[in-house]
Amino acid sequence: MGGWTEGAAAEVERERAGGGAAGGTEGRTLAAMVTWMTERAGDRVISDAGPQFTDEARVVETLTGVWWRAIYGAGRDATGASSGLVQSR
What we know:
Helix content is about 60%, strand content about 0%. The protein is mainly alpha-helical and about 90 residues long.
């Protein structure tokens, strides 16, 4: 997971340096949290842990929204829309 975390941290810092991402939590810490959260969610999908994990597309959509809000702030979703919410089906 270290390589994924380092790559995500570098991207967070690049986005922040370019003014595209919100400041806040140190980039490596933020990257570690969302990376491990994603790993655990993937584990739940594989182990069929419950109804909230059976729709893989919804899991991906939700995780993408969490990543975007964590990095870019509450005002944007994964499409760049200003709602800050992933649309439910």
